[in-house]
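DUF2721 domain-containing protein
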Amino acid sequence: MEITFNTPALLFPAISLLLLAYTNRYLALAALIRKLHDEYMRGEKNHLLVKQIKILRLRINLIRWMQAFGVFSFVCCVLTMYGVYQQWKVMTELAFAISLITLLASLVISLVEISQSTRALEWELSDMEELEGPGFFKNLFKTERE
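Structure:
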């Protein structure tokens, strides 16, 4: 396969949009953490607060890794373009492969973060419904007879 300037250039807008989405998730989490902190300082503690704090800490770390892999993927795309410019075939192919792999890692971590977010929302819903929510997959395969 011949890698040209156009090959890594295709990833530039995708990676940029992903990084923007990751930043938005981070900012939303930061706002939520600040809100929970204010509630905690006012003494408005509920039984879900400890669970929420653990999930939020995990989600912040996941977003950090999502962003890091996304940025590294972007850097590898730039290195790929430089390799094409210098006509370094092996370095170009290696940098592009690493770029794709790190982009994939970023997306997989994003999926894990989304599942953690969903889990936290299920706790909130179960608290409002006064029952434990069965979760997404149990509802997915649930028949109407049950």
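The chain has five helices and no strands.
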